[in-house]
Design goal:
single chain; mainly beta; 5-stranded antiparallel beta sheet; signal; DUF2155 domain-containing protein; DUF2155
Length: about 120
Amino acid sequence: MRVLTLTLALAIAGPAAAQAPAPLEVAPATGAVLRGLDKVAGAAHDLTVAVGDSVTFGRLTVTLLECRYPVGNPSGDGYAYLLIHDARHDGAVFRGWMVAASPALNALDHPRFDVWLIRCTNA
């Protein structure tokens, strides 16, 4: 019964529904520009970091593990894999991908600091 339902749904939707979208082609970058906001001081700072390096922002240590950008639109978006530690906490307070075009998609959840990706860079 389920196979019949799926077959009917695909037949009604047409051939476009059965085709998967083409994967986004990305290229690796050598670094990134991040923006950090100290919510208490009300001050924002741009942080430039190379892949594999770390920068300090307040009591946070931000490590850029990887940065990628769309091949056809290098300035339009970026994807960074970040590791963020707080000196007052054991372990990472953030580990994951941030997307420049959607900063709220996977954001750092911290009471004092915000960090988000602006763009990937190449030296």
